[in-house]
Amino acid sequence: MSFFEILQSIIPQAVFFAAPLIFTALGGVFSERSGIINIGLEGLMVMGAFVGIVFNLAFVDVFGNWTPWVSILVAMVVSAIFALAHAVASITFRADQVVSGVAMNFLALGIGLFLTKQWYDKGQTDMVERPFYTTDIPVLSKIPIIGDLFFSGMYLTSYLAIILAFVAWFILFKTPFGLRLRSVGEHPMAADTNGINVYGMRYVAVMISGALGGLGGSVFALTIALNFSHATIVGQGFMSLAAVIFGKWHPLGALGAALFFGFAQSLSIVGSGIPLLSDVPQIFLLIAPYVLTILALAGFIGRAEAPKALGDSYIKGNR
Amino acid sequence: MDYVIEMLNIRKEFPGVVANNNVTLQVKKGEIHALLGENGAGKSTLMNVLFGLYQPERGEIRVKGKKAAITDPNIANKLGIGMVHQHFMLVDTFTVTENIVLGSEPRKGALVDIKKAEKQVKELSERYGLNVDPKAKIRNISVGMQQRVEILKTLYRGADILILDEPTAVLTPQEIKELIGIMQSLIHEGKSIILITHKLKEIMEVCDRCTVIRKGEGIGTVDVKDTDPNELASLMVGREVTFSTEKTKSDPKEIYLSIKDLRVKDVRGVEMVKDLNLEVRAGEIVGIAGVDGNGQSELIEAITGLRKSTSGQIALHDKVISNLSPRKVTQSGISHIPQDRHKFGLVLDFPIGENMVLQTYYQEPFSKKGVMNYKNIYQKAQSLIKEYDVRTPDEYTKARALSGGNQQKAIIGREVDRSPDLIIAAQPTRGLDVGAIEFIHKKLIEERDKGRAVLLLSFELDEIMNLSDRIAVMFDGQIVADVKPEETDEQKLGLLMAGNTVEKAGAE
Amino acid sequence: ACGGASNEEASSEGEGESSEGGSTDFSVAMVTDVGGVDDKSFNQSAWEGLQAFGEENGLTEDEGFDYAQSESDADYTTNLNRLVRKDYNLIFGIGYLLQPAIKEVAGQYPDTNFSIVDAVAEGDNIASITFKEHQGSFLAGVAAAHKTESNQIGFVGGVDGDLINKFESGYVAGAKSVNPDIEVDVQYAESFAAADKGKLIASNMYSKGIDVIYHASGATGNGVFAQAKDIKKNNPEQGVWVIGVDRNQHEEGQIGESNVTLTSMVKRVDIAVQDVATQAMNGEFPGGEVIEYGLADDAISIARTNEEALTEDILSAVEEWKTKIVNGDVDVPSTRDELKTYVDSL
Amino acid sequence: MFSNRTVNILIPIISVLLGLLSGAIIMLAFGYNPIAGYAALWNGAFGDLYFFGETLRQVTPYILSGLAVAFALRTGLLNIGVEGQVFVGWLASVWVGVAFELPGIIHLPLAIFAAALAGAFWGFIPGILKAKLGVHEVIVTIMMNYIALYVTNEIVRNVITDGEDKTERIAETASLASPWLAEMTFYSRLHYGLLIALFVAFIMWFLLNKTTTGFELRSVGFNQNASQYAGMNVSRNIILAMVISGAFAGLAGAMEGLGTFGYLSVKSGFTNIGFDGIAVALLGANTALGVVLAAFLFGTLKIGALNMPTASGVPTELVEIVIALIIFFVASSYIIRWIILRFKKEGK
Ligand SMILES: Nc1ncnc2c1ncn2[C@@H]1O[C@H](COP(=O)(O)OP(=O)(O)OP(=O)(O)O)[C@@H](O)[C@H]1O
Ligand SMILES: Nc1ncnc2c1ncn2[C@@H]1O[C@H](COP(=O)(O)OP(=O)(O)OP(=O)(O)O)[C@@H](O)[C@H]1O
Ligand SMILES: [Mg+2]
Ligand SMILES: [Mg+2]
């Protein structure tokens, strides 16, 4: 394979692999920027995948070709509501945020599988009839080289993920809402004395993270897994959490980190076909994505500064 | 009467504590009104009530004659009340402008109009002579600047009643002077100010009236021109207070600490200490005077092993201790009362008792062969708590729950009790009330009289003048002058600290 | 030796005095691996076998026949014991993962009969059921070799190991038998639950020009189907095919009017389970034996649902090879070593 | 009426009851009989000595993985990598178990030690990266989990065996299995590991609360600056914390390798012993005794749940939901405490 061919196969693969992680990691960024640790991303993805699949199966006759889009929307809404559990526990009830997040992971899987058994009478759902499909973008895909690399055979949801990363960056760093949200994660009392509703902001942030986690999970389910079972979401949420930290709590950083994971995974699979890498024992290719991540962190990413108030529950009138 | 603020018979309780009881505070338009009281008297609480952070159990608040229910800082802002908190409410990673506009940002469509915001901040800052850079990040500017940002924050919100909670505790004399200028220009613009401070001199200098709180109870309000510091102090404490600490003449003996040609870089790699030479003898207190940021912190960090020096040498007696680990340095006979008690001095989540052995936990009788002996530890803590008058429910209470003064007394107890040869005390009385200051000063002099060397770092000229036997003026990383307190005055010291030579300072 | 004693003890306090009221005294149960009885795969198939057996012999669920589901590999032994203590006469362990557990428990309870599916365990009271997946895979390889236009085909395995290697070896052998020059790309996802990796591998294979992929990888295969269907959707003319595994995966391949599932290598665990249960009921329990079910027993077969794709030519070729295998003319390799010898001999 | 101490004990009990109550409501809502469901759960966990033995067996690794997470948390580190450390511990113990022929008095301790060492090494890497380069331990430990999974599989397949799916059984001399315990519990797989787990819980308590090392570890966990000021070596303590945490996790692996299974097979995914350990630690409030109790609860629910579908038709997933709710309730102890105090006031 020529270098170009390799790129041409790696890029779309990296992107579709990364897309669900991007959505979810962006959710993580929102939550953590507001000061709430979100270890429950895995659970939010599970919930999103479950809702996305179930809705798709149930309403495919109603919404026709729009079914996957409506499904991810519904998954977002339901997961946002589900995230309320984390919000109530960690913001209002002052629960340890890590504890609450861990509980979210258990709860989502429990509910998802329990209801699957109730509704389908088996451990996994059927495959959806109408998942997302890739497309070539009209006009753009005709551009030489670039068209083949970036605009052919891509999921629209992947573009959505990338666009959303920029939107998130814009919201967090350019709008009053973003400024306030970040202030709440850095110094909630300062925000409070400036008349910002700390609890309100944190609720909103956690629910956004629920919506985005649900989006990530449902996109994963509707582009890759096509059904829901205990084996649908297995660690993608934790990888997204890693992307949040790897990306230094920045939306574009998280985007980069998720794409990095996508590239590394794709490379490890394409690797066996590349002359230089084909002699490398399989095991090294298999662990390469994870080792590369550690090396990248140790080598040049280094110390990342978390939002200052991350993990602290804010108690009005306390110092 | 044209009171802008009236707080009548306020009562505020916390679980188990009555922080304010029957406190009345009336502020006239255009005055600087001092609020005075010991640590924990309830000053901050009262102001937080006024600012809407706490809700009072009883009492009434009137703003400009109208009864007001201030349930939220937003309401306080709308009523024109602004507050600069004792612990700054600034987001470190934000710029000056972002901090100021946060919560009421000028907008351009959906965006923060940052250009417009910066312009507004610049204008405001020029109008009151505050001189801040709107684009600077908070973490990169000095404490004094940060405080101005806090003031700007209130002005930006259109406050005409400003609450300043202990604004001068963290400032250098120069900065205090500038702050006073700022306050006066604010009054000039028709604003009113409530000022909390433990420094009676400041009250005498700038305030019109003064309200005193003692243990949560309102004691009364006096006209400053009709009173004097002694009266204020006794009103506050409820007994007579002596001010200048009694001390005999020092009797310096052999050299304990000697520093030769020391060079130290700070975190950013900038050389902050440049060829510094200094000696401290047994039985004397050497005060380091200087404007913050002239290398004092780096010097102390280098001596105590927290920072590496790049060249030169530090010796205790005849033993070179440069670049030893903090543990080795303490073991060689140095005690250190750190500048920032929360960050360095204490593990706030440990019981106060365990904090008492933070430097000695690995030695007998507190542990033996790696096994701790908590009985001995708490016994020791108990006796130190008694000896150093640390007010705490018991030795098992978390250090976090103690007031700043009591935390500081605990640290001093711990450090002094180790019978070191050299005590390094960095800003040992920052933010403390007169009673606590008196106590700490007495202790330091006692230690000197026992033949120990004391190196005192303070930005408080009063403290330097009162306590030191010898004053080393530090400027731009060097000791530029070595003077006796009785041969100088604050005026001259100030000039030396600003980088003038001894001759020039003497001439003026 | 003392296992018998404890067995009696257990039965004296066991709550289900099940066998007495039933139409026969025989009762049978199974323990799933972590997939569960509704995994749409061999666990489900096994359970269907038991249900059919129960129906045939008038047994009632919970008493005459039952299952216990495992949530992790630590649960196998617990579940086996649970069933032993309920006095089932015959207990199946479904899946090679249960092999050590069956062996251990069977040793402790010599009076109960056990049967392990997909693995071999020694013991007088154990009947080992294995399948000649390599035979079915061989036919899948034959079908793939006939279907491919690029002469490149792919294999996606779950976790690299003896069992899946059997699928791989048979498949490669089948394809090479048809056309020795055919290239077979073999990849393992190292997981039965990594649809994303499955999709990456499939995407990579199809983009290299491979047009038929045989997967033996559980839920990882979902990704393979997703990729094939996506290509098909965008380019209905392009030939992309998936060969399913364990059961007929026709439904998984459906996309609009067309279907990417060329065929599936069907493994009828139900037939085997029913068969062994019947033997045991009739007092002919094949204890200590290894029973291999293969093409000859119709326990292994090739699905013919996709008539459009699986043309007459291909079917007749498949039939041809099937006859050769059943007759013993062809000895299908079941390990990589055997495969090597086999390919060299071509 | 209630002292502070009683309140502290009441909170977990109330949380567990609330969790079970919620589970009952869910069962009712879906048409199951909650009494039958919980009876099945109870019988599944304690129905007779066999199941009791199995429950205790399941509790054993949970104690250790819970202690591993708790130990790290006590020193301010979130070790999500316990899962991977369990894997390498399991691998090391089995490897020593099959590779050597030694008298039991040496073989067993050696195998256990190897597991602790392997886990410690797996904790050392994120530890040193955190201490020296400030790399966030959460990402590194997540990555190390995957590396552990794949490397362990590879070693089982191609190093210890020649292309097999699982190792041979460990030599009897390296086994934790106890005929005595097994016989007493009708051949459950209860093994001597439980004693090790309890002993390690004691060690953790002793280490953290009674030794100077523990004092330093806790101090560094709360305030690195003050610890440095007090002459403690902050980096060393961070590394040490991760190493000890990893060693505990490695021992959890040894429980599986030398006790429950006696071999290691190629795994297609995580065992969840490590991830469940996070929940166990948090339920146990990161204290040694708390972890032991939480592990017991966890093991009971997990083993008992297996009996639910057979005996009452309730899907096992219900237990996952109940566990999640219990964790939520424990985490929200603030509100429970508040309610208790309310009652207390009114009771007066
Ligand atoms: N958040 C709180 N919770 C409980 N008690 C509090 C709280 N804040 C203050 N207190 C109590 O109220 C009393 C008054 O505290 P406050 O902070 O108002 O003192 P202060 O006069 O500002 O002291 P300082 O001079 O040290 O700033 C304290 O003695 C303390 O016991
Ligand atoms: N959250 C709290 N809960 C209980 N008591 C508190 C709390 N916060 C403060 N206090 C009490 O308030 C009193 C005064 O505390 P404060 O921090 O104002 O002291 P301080 O001398 O001003 O210290 P600092 O050095 O921080 O300025 C102390 O007695 C302390 O016990
Ligand atoms: Mg105060
Ligand atoms: Mg104070």
From TrEMBL, chain A:
This is ABC transporter permease. PANTHER family: GUANOSINE ABC TRANSPORTER PERMEASE PROTEIN NUPQ (PTHR43370:SF1), SUGAR ABC TRANSPORTER INTEGRAL MEMBRANE PROTEIN-RELATED (PTHR43370). The chain crosses the membrane at residues 6-27, 39-60, 66-89, 101-120, 149-173, 203-222, 228-247, 254-277, 283-301. It is a multi-pass membrane protein. The keyword DNA repair does not apply. Its main location: membrane. It is found in: Cell membrane. Keywords: Cell membrane, Membrane, Transmembrane, Transmembrane helix.
Automatic annotation (TrEMBL), chain B:
SUPFAM superfamilies: P-loop containing nucleoside triphosphate hydrolases (SSF52540). InterPro entries: AAA+_ATPase, ABC_carbohydrate_import_ATPase, ABC_transporter-like_ATP-bd, ABC_transporter-like_CS, P-loop_NTPase. Residues 5-240, 257-501 form the ABC transporter domain. Keywords: ATP-binding, Nucleotide-binding. Pfam families: ABC_tran. The keyword Nucleotide-binding applies. GO terms for molecular function: ATP binding. This is ABC transporter ATP-binding protein. The lineage of its organism: Bacteria, Bacillati, Bacillota, Bacilli, Bacillales.
Automatic annotation (TrEMBL), chain D:
InterPro entries: ABC_transp_permease. Pfam families: BPD_transp_2. Its main location: membrane. CDD domains: TM_PBP1_transp_TpRbsC_like. It is a multi-pass membrane protein. It comes from the Bacteria. The chain crosses the membrane at residues 7-29, 59-82, 102-125, 190-208, 238-266, 278-301, 321-340. This is ABC transporter permease. It comes from Halobacillus shinanisalinarum. The lineage of its organism: Bacteria, Bacillati, Bacillota, Bacilli, Bacillales.
